[in-house]
Design a protein that fits this description.
Blueprint (H helix, E strand, L loop, with lengths): L7 H8 L4 H8 L3 H7 L7 E4 L18 E5 L17 H8 L4 H12 L5 E5 L6 H10 L5 E5 L6 H10 L5 E5 L6 H10 L4 E3 L12 H13 L1
Parallel strand pairs: 1-2, 2-3, 3-4, 4-5, 5-6
InterPro entries: F-box-like_dom_sf, F-box_dom, F-box_LRR-repeat, Leu-rich_rpt_Cys-con_subtyp, LRR_dom_sf
Keywords: Ubl conjugation pathway
Organism: Pomatostomus ruficeps
Length: 223
């Protein structure tokens, strides 16, 4: 039996075991498989592991998307989580190449994926409070928001979660060093039903301006 003789349900099941590139390559072989590739039911979950993946055309964004994960683990991408005032010229140039990559992608998610239930961002150093605010407003069904090592996230994201996260059940801001204990306490007070976690966040040294860096260096020399 040829693969195209399988019914739609079987083909969708087959495609579900493939990664994004394999799905795209298989879809190029005939119109029937292309239609399966374009079926929204196939794209309820998306995982990305590098900025380049967000710019490919091997996936679809749509109302069926419920679970989204964008997690960078590359040593090069970790440069984005260094404070801007500590980056050398090479690091700044590297960051500028994909500074808006994740934010632009999440804007598309806001416009196309109103049924999103879960979002996980890890190592996305350029994502801002405004971006998360927009997403919370446009994805009212969001139940889980997990942020890890997103250095530009501040208490404004916590405020946005309290104001617009009506369906929110889980909020993690691990290793987000610009989140403060006061901000966490306000969320706990206003949203007692939300499971809030902030491992190594409020106790970490937040991003500082250059003059504060000098003060820290002087303090270290005195020790």
């Amino acid at each position: 039996m040829h693969i195209t003789q399988l019914n739609r349900e079987c083909l969708l099941h087959l495609f579900s075991f493939l990664d994004k590139n394999s799905r795209k390559n298989l879809a190029k072989t005939c119109h029937k498989l292309l239609e399966v590739f374009q079926d929204p039911l196939l794209w309820s979950l998306l995982n990305f592991h590098s900025p380049v993946e967000l710019k490919k055309d091997n996936f679809l964004l749509g109302p069926a998307l419920k679970y989204l994960s964008i997690c960078w683990y590359s040593e090069r991408v970790k440069v984005c989580n260094i404070e801007d005032w500590m980056k050398n010229s090479f690091q700044k140039d590297f960051c500028s190449r994909h500074e808006t990559t994740v934010s632009d992608f999440l804007l598309d998610v806001c416009n196309r994926c109103p049924n999103l239930l879960s979002l996980t961002l890890s190592g996305c150093g350029h994502v801002t409070d405004d971006c998360i605010l927009q997403l919370l407003k446009n994805c009212p069904k969001l139940k889980s928001l997990k942020l890890e090592n997103c250095v530009r996230i501040t208490d404004r994201t916590l405020e946005a979660a309290a104001l617009h996260g009506a369906a929110l059940q889980t909020l993690h801001v691990d290793f987000c060093r610009n989140v403060t204990r006061a901000g966490l306490d306000r969320v706990r007070e206003r949203c007692p039903s939300v499971t809030l976690r902030a491992d190594r966040s409020a106790n970490m040294i937040p991003d500082s301006r250059p003059e504060k860096k000098l003060m820290l260096e002087k303090a270290e020399r005195k020790l």
